[in-house]
Amino acid sequence: MGIAESATVDRDDLVELGKGLVSLVVVLAAWEAAAQMELVRPYFLPALSEVLLRFVELTLDGTMIEHGYLTIRRAIIGLVIACTLGIVVGVLSARSRVMAWFWDPIIEVGYPVPVIALIPVFLFWFGTGDQPIIALVTVGCFWPVALNARNATRDVDENLIWSARMMGTSDRQLLRKVVIPAAAPGIISGIQIALPISLIITFVYEMVAGTSGLGYLEIRGVRSFDSVQVYAALIAIMILGFVFDRGLRVLRARLLAWT
């Protein structure tokens, strides 16, 4: 790619980014205007300027950073465990009849279950703290990862597998060098589905029974009738979700550059 082509691509990206920001700016401006004109009671919708000021204050005094770190840690640990187990189970279920016989019914039944409904059960079993949150995130994220890994592995072109076997590729090499790379787009799609699920589960658990984290910070504002803190925590949650989603998209683009 030449310099001129690169400049054109960068310019096009900036134009698309600008178009995408227009609607966001309009919504935020409408929010501030509605609050300033008191079209909505301040308790229900505080001014955006007040919310941003509180967000900055909580960030500077370390409160937002501390709670954000705890939320990120819980979500990421649970997601990593779920991805590890889900990829292994999904790939093996697609390659082994015994594994398929055992896991296919479990995946099909477990995938549609709303994981949030299991929070009372996990509270009953494990109580509060990091462990039950991580465990529930693992359970909730396991299903989409395992399902997508299984389906992507089953959809690998059989001609690739036959060609590799004709060249004397062993089963282990076949799995590592042919099957998993060919199934990688589907596997990463499963991880992209699981990512917001991990954050949602973490936030909700923190709101219901947490003593720390962004979800707890938000629900603490509700309990103290501090709507500004509620919206400040909500903005932090939105920023966190956006950053994680964009980061995973960039990682996907680099890992699948060969496709």
Automatic annotation (TrEMBL):
<feature type="transmembrane region" description="Helical">
    <location>
        <begin position="174"/>
        <end position="205"/>
    </location>
</feature>
<dbReference type="GO" id="GO:0055085">
    <property type="term" value="P:transmembrane transport"/>
</dbReference>
<keyword id="KW-0813">Transport</keyword>
<keyword id="KW-1133">Transmembrane helix</keyword>
<feature type="transmembrane region" description="Helical">
    <location>
        <begin position="133"/>
        <end position="153"/>
    </location>
</feature>
<feature type="transmembrane region" description="Helical">
    <location>
        <begin position="225"/>
        <end position="244"/>
    </location>
</feature>
<protein>
    <submittedName>
        <fullName>ABC transporter permease</fullName>
    </submittedName>
</protein>
<dbReference type="InterPro" id="IPR035906">
    <property type="entry name" value="MetI-like_sf"/>
</dbReference>
<feature type="transmembrane region" description="Helical">
    <location>
        <begin position="106"/>
        <end position="127"/>
    </location>
</feature>
<feature type="transmembrane region" description="Helical">
    <location>
        <begin position="75"/>
        <end position="94"/>
    </location>
</feature>
<keyword id="KW-0472">Membrane</keyword>
<keyword id="KW-0812">Transmembrane</keyword>
<dbReference type="Pfam" id="PF00528">
    <property type="entry name" value="BPD_transp_1"/>
</dbReference>
<comment type="similarity">
    <text>Belongs to the binding-protein-dependent transport system permease family.</text>
</comment>
<feature type="domain" description="ABC transmembrane type-1">
    <location>
        <begin position="68"/>
        <end position="252"/>
    </location>
</feature>
<dbReference type="InterPro" id="IPR000515">
    <property type="entry name" value="MetI-like"/>
</dbReference>
<dbReference type="GO" id="GO:0005886">
    <property type="term" value="C:plasma membrane"/>
</dbReference>
<keyword id="KW-1003">Cell membrane</keyword>
